[in-house]
Amino acid sequence: MAMLHTVNKSPFERNTFDSCISMAKSGSSVLLIEDGVIASLKGTSVSDKVSKAMESVTFYVLGPDLNARGMTDDQIIDGIKVVDYEGFVDLTAEHENVQAWL
Amino acid sequence: MKYGLLINEGPYQHQAVDSAYQFAKAAIAKGHEVFRVFFYHDGVNTATDFAVPPQDDRNITANWIKLAEENNIDMVVCIAAAQRRGLLDANEAERQGKRGDNIAPTFRISGLGQLVEAGIECDRLLTFGD
Predict the structure, then answer these.
(1) Distance from CA of A8 to the nearest CA of B (A)
(2) A45 is in which domain, residue-wise?
(3) What is the rounded distance in angstroms from the CA atom of residue A61 to the CA atom of residue A63?
(4) Is B78 labeled as catalytic in the residue annotation?
(5) N or C: which end of chain B has fewer CB within 10 A?
(6) For the segment B55-79, what is each residue's pLDDT rounded down to a tens digit?
(7) For residues B36 and B38, what is the distance between their CA atoms, to the nearest angstrom?
(8) In CATH, which superfamily holds the domain spanning B2-128?
């Protein structure tokens, strides 16, 4: 069982995303919520960093927060899984513990 | 699974309290238990009985009260954070010599021990903040 990390701020606003991926162990998961969903977008200056992190960490993004910001599933990096709140709940149950990067 | 939620930011300012509410609703819908919600820092403002948001906006406090009453959630407000921000229950208002009290029903004032206990009692403790 591994840790679920949640990131709720855009990587262009805070450095919590960087802190998270630098600390997240191989096999753990990152869920992008609230403004954190910005990190899931294709073609930004952090996209390569996300793709590289995806070699060892599984990425999820909260669909309702993505849609609330006018973005759609086809704009996100391939391999990032979109979940709803039920999926969020499932992730917290499947992982041993949850770390919020605030 | 038994969940505890920690809310560190205030309503209508940050998304934290809305995210926590949506999470709690989804968890309950999936058959999990939300044991306690601990309101800390500006999160305590969620517990005011005096907020009157416009009718076409969500009423965050009322939504929490309904969810808590229907699902027996223990809604705890940090006493030190609350008193700093002018949130008093009837006992505290009397003790401090204030004219009124404004903690909404179903919320109760208590201390950080309740947060620690939630961390021990619950299978998962989730933090929602800024």
Answers:
(1) 8
(2) 3-101
(3) 6
(4) yes
(5) N
(6) 999 999 999 999 999 999 999 999 9
(7) 6
(8) DsrEFH-like (3.40.1260.10)
